[in-house]
Specification:
Layout lengths: L10 E4 L14 H9 L7 E5 L3 H6 L6 E5 L8 E4 L2 E4 L2 E5 L8 H16 L4 H10 L8 E6 L2 E5 L6 H9 L5 E6 L17 E7 L3 H7 L4 E2 L3 H11 L5 E4 L19
Parallel strand pairs: 1-2, 2-3, 8-12, 9-10, 9-12, 10-11
Antiparallel strand pairs: 4-5, 5-6, 7-8
């Protein structure tokens, strides 16, 4: 939202607030969060995720039109009834039709479905699009299965919370590739997922911070070296996941991590 003081959307939704870019805010998390809600006075309708405590706290004084959303309880405008995502009495879609993995993608689809419905897109069209959507590049993107090993590219995970979401999407046998530019963000939130991780290869400026959480992490010089090692140890049933939890500025031009500097 930086640099957009006059932005005035018809509908504005926030699904989660988590630490990122603190290197640009002198480590001030509240200043970063405030930037995300700064445009609320310009908004016609705010879609509020009641499942995120930070969103609830920071928007409690907002007086404009609000549509509440929750996948954890049904006392909201948008809610989950079994596997059905509902807007009041309208069934927007069935979450089992999603081809993309992870609870976060159910939230994403829910927000998108409501916004489309508000824009008068027919429900049948919304359901067809959601059922046929296979995801976007670099966001827990399925790459291939080779000898029973599944490979996923989540290079857009440029902060620990995004990597946490990716780890939640898989139960076990994860071989994780992580590291990059140090944005002064803690990796402690990843610790509870240690039992899902078979091996970790770390690289870049932040490798020591990641190793402080995962002492058994193996240090490699580059992401490519980590990938080669992951391929060598992976067996059928494993998941090789590139989810860096960091920005790529120290080694690449951008999150796609394709143009090695």
């Amino acid at each position: 939202m930086e640099g957009t003081p006059s932005f005035a959307p018809d509908v504005y939704g926030i699904l989660n607030l988590s630490p990122d870019h603190l290197d640009r805010y002198d480590g001030n998390l509240e200043a970063y969060y405030a930037e995300k809600v700064r445009i609320l006075p310009n908004v016609k309708c705010f879609v509020k995720n009641m499942d995120d405590a930070n969103i609830v706290r920071l928007t409690q004084n907002y007086q404009g039109e609000t549509i509440t959303l929750s996948l954890k309880n049904q006392n909201t405008d948008i809610y989950r009834d079994g596997t059905h995502i509902m807007y009041r009495d309208v069934r927007l879609f069935d979450q089992t039709s999603l081809k993309i993995v992870g609870e976060h993608n159910i939230y994403n689809a829910t927000m998108a479905a409501y916004m489309a419905y508000r824009a008068h897109v027919p429900v049948e069209t919304i359901q067809n699009v959601i059922a046929s959507f296979t995801g976007v590049e670099h966001r827990i993107e399925y790459v291939a299965t080779v000898n029973g090993v599944r490979y996923y590219n989540d290079s857009k995970a440029t902060n620990p919370e995004s990597t946490e979401v990716a780890l939640k999407a898989f139960d076990k046998n994860i071989i994780l590739l992580a590291g990059g530019f140090d944005k002064r963000i803690s990796f402690e939130g990843l610790r509870p997922y240690a039992n899902r991780i078979k091996a970790i290869y770390v690289f870049g400026e932040s490798l020591e911070q990641i190793k402080s959480v995962f002492p058994n992490a193996v240090v490699v010089k580059t992401m490519l070296d980590g990938t080669k090692n992951a391929i060598n140890i992976a067996v059928s049933g494993d998941v090789v996941l590139l989810s860096p939890a960091c920005a790529s500025y120290d080694q690449f031009d951008n999150y796609e991590r394709g143009n090695n500097l």
